[in-house]
Design brief:
The protein is mainly beta. It has one helix and eleven strands; from the N terminus they run H-E-E-E-E-E-E-E-E-E-E-E. It has one domain: Beta Barrel (Lipocalin), CATH 2.40.128. 11% of the residues lie in helices and 53% in strands. About 10% of the residues have low confidence. The N and C termini lie far apart (41 Å). A ten-stranded antiparallel beta barrel has the order 1-2-3-4-5-6-7-9-10-11.
Length: 169
């Protein structure tokens, strides 16, 4: 019986240590790869739905995103991004463009269990604005994604859009 208890303790400790291992920076966004069903609340209170297909391309070095809004106020909106880890700069970069002619240039970072893609601060005519995507509550089957902005250098962030991701079965 003592051997069983010791085995269980060792197993729990080793599993805990394994779970806490730091991901190599090149793998930070691997959780995102897959086919996803998306839901969100529209500004008017309705439910928006869409899909996002995330694949690795170019010998696995680049992550390609293909987003489509299928239902709700944003139906018909689509966008795509390319994300890549730049080993020379030691950072993730993402270029996003969409069906409304939008373009964003992001830099990736990680803070504990949250992953970010952030823009540099830009002037919108009313002062500096910075925007970011936040990936969190990440499991193998789901995560939450927020689009946020700040006009005070990051002291406070405003939630602009929250999407719930569920992996397609």
């Amino acid at each position: 019986m003592k051997k069983l208890i010791v085995f269980v303790i060792v197993l729990c400790v080793s599993t805990s240590v394994w779970a806490q291992e730091e991901l190599p920076v090149e793998q930070w966004y691997q959780f995102w790869v897959g086919n996803w069903d998306l839901t969100w609340q529209d500004a008017g209170g309705g439910t928006g739905k869409g899909t996002n297909q995330i694949v690795r391309i170019l010998d696995g070095k680049v992550i390609q995103e293909n987003f489509k809004a299928l239902e709700g106020a944003l139906a018909g909106y689509s966008g795509m991004s390319l994300s890549v880890y730049n080993p020379t700069a030691k950072q993730w970069k993402q270029a996003w463009t969409d069906s409304q002619g939008g373009y964003f240039d992001f830099t990736g970072r990680k803070d504990e269990d949250r992953f970010y893609f952030e823009t540099a601060e830009t002037d919108n005519g009313q002062g500096g604005v910075q925007q970011r995507m936040v990936f969190y509550e990440i499991t193998e089957e789901a995560f939450t994604w927020d689009w946020e902005s700040t006009q005070d250098g990051g002291a406070t962030w405003t939630l602009n859009w929250r999407i719930q991701y569920r992996r397609q079965q």
